[in-house]
């Protein structure tokens, strides 16, 4: 069945050659320099096509994690701890060299084509076909239809999107 998955992903990559990519990064906790802790940063590692719950690179497929838009660090008050954490991640992306306003994906994990399991990944085998769970509460959808829909959205975004 991994051959069917590989074929679907290779066909998707061929269709996406001119489509825009987004950065994939890794959060690096700050090291100590002369005894003082340095602030964490998000370091870009590669790029991928963002297809909903999937990130497609040249040689892998990843499940999305958090999406952060880089921005300079500013002091402000926050109504919620989650807002503070998002601002810290946005500043970490800027410190890591991501241009201001650019998107970077962190917290992603690779999809293991040899161990497709509905509980651990958005891609699974069911009924002899490859399916994708397009949201945490959403149902399963055939991967080929999902990729067609997402590639079309990426290549022809809705007006003002």
Task: Describe what this molecule looks like in 3D.
- The protein is 26% helix and 31% strand.
- With 161 residues, it is α+β, with helices and mostly antiparallel strands.
- The protein has one domain (2-155).
- Strands 7-8-1-4-5-6-9 form a 7-stranded mixed beta sheet. A 3-stranded antiparallel beta sheet has the order 10-11-12.
Task: Based on the model shown, name its key terms.
161 residues; alpha+beta; 7-stranded mixed β-sheet; 3 helices; 12 strands; 26% helix
Write the layout of secondary structure elements.
Layout: H1 2-15, E1 22-28, E2 32-33, E3 36-37, E4 41-51, E5 54-56, E6 61-63, E7 66-69, H2 81-95, E8 103-106, E9 109-110, E10 123-126, E11 129-133, E12 140-142, H3 143-155
Parallel strand pairs: 1-8
Antiparallel strand pairs: 1-4, 2-3, 4-5, 5-6, 6-9, 7-8, 10-11, 11-12
The amount of beta strand, in percent, is 25-35%
Number of helices: 3
Q: Give the biggest sheet.
A: 7 strands, mixed
Q: How many β-strand runs?
A: 12
The whole-number mean of residue pLDDT values reads: 87
* Proportion of residues in helical segments: 25-40%
Spatial strand arrangement across the major sheet: 7-8-1-4-5-6-9
Poorly predicted ranges: none
Element order, helices and strands?
Answer: HEEEEEEEHEEEEEH
Radius of gyration: 18 Å
Query: How many structural domains can be distinguished in the coordinates?
Result: 1
Structural class: alpha+beta
Quaternary status of these chains?
single chain
How far is the first residue's CA from the last residue's CA?
36 Å
């Amino acid at each position: 069945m991994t051959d069917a998955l590989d074929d679907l992903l290779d066909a998707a990559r061929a269709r996406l050659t001119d489509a825009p990519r987004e950065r994939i990064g890794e959060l690096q906790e700050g090291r100590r320099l002369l005894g003082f802790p340095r602030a964490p940063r998000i370091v870009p590692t590669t790029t991928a096509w963002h297809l909903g719950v999937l990130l497609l690179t040249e040689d892998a497929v990843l499940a999305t994690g958090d999406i952060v838009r880089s921005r300079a660090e500013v002091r402000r008050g926050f109504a919620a701890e989650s807002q503070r954490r998002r601002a810290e991640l946005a500043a970490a992306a800027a410190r890591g060299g991501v241009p201001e306003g650019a998107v970077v994906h962190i917290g992603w994990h690779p999809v293991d084509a040899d161990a497709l399991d509905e509980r651990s990944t958005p891609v699974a085998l069911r009924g002899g076909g490859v399916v994708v769970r397009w949201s945490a509460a959403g149902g399963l959808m055939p991967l080929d239809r999902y990729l067609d829909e997402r590639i079309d959205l990426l290549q022809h975004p809705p007006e003002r999107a």
